[in-house]
Amino acid sequence: MSNRKEEYVLADGKRSTHRHDAVLVSIRKLIGWTLAHSARIPPQYIVASAEHEAGCAYNEVDTESDGYESWGLFQVGDRDPGFAKAMLPLQLDPECAVRSFVKLQEGRLDDLLKEAKLSAPTPDCWFYLALWHNQGPGAGRKTIQRYGLDAKAYVARNPEARINKYGLDCMTGGDMWPAGWKISA
Questions:
Q1: What is the pLDDT of residues 31-49, one digit of tens each?
Q2: DSSP code of residue 21
Q3: What residue ranges define each of the domains in the chain, with the CATH number in brackets?
Q4: Residue 46 and residue 144: Cα distance in Å, rounded?
Q5: Contacting residues for 181 by C-beta, under 8 A, at least 6 apart
Q6: DSSP states of 22-44 as a string?
Q7: Model pTM?
Q8: Could you report the per-residue pLDDT of 153-177, keeping only the tens digit for each?
């Protein structure tokens, strides 16, 4: 059980713990911003990440029991590369959050591809990129080194892992992906 405190930053800067104060971003906007800001990170990855990290609430701020705060759609904090504490309020602007998150993930994707000895992403990369974001690069590197890059095999080895649905959704866009829309490779 986590001791995480979920809050929503209101227009006046005050914080509320009520989910009804969450401000949600549309899936179509997430897709559009992703396509505008990255040719490498597919929209389904961004949609699933926003859903799993913050329920698509761009005004969410989570505080862990040790005081660590993560902000916005993708719950980034000052422990993430390139995010100083002073920059975190910018994550409350959903387009800014998408723009900065795809840049962060592009760097992580480069590291993942190098670790997996790939020149281009495969569909399994999006599962492992979610793992990299959620559990840290060490967990991603360790499993790739030990077992290779295989999402289906990861799920079979770890059937109860919370990352499974998140990672698989990053491959497909998950439950929020618009029906009939093409999935990027």
A1: 999 999 999 999 999 999 9
A2: G
A3: 5-176 (1.10.530)
A4: 22
A5: 173
A6: --BPPHHHHHHHHHHH-SSS-HH
A7: 0.92
A8: 999 999 999 999 999 999 999 998 9
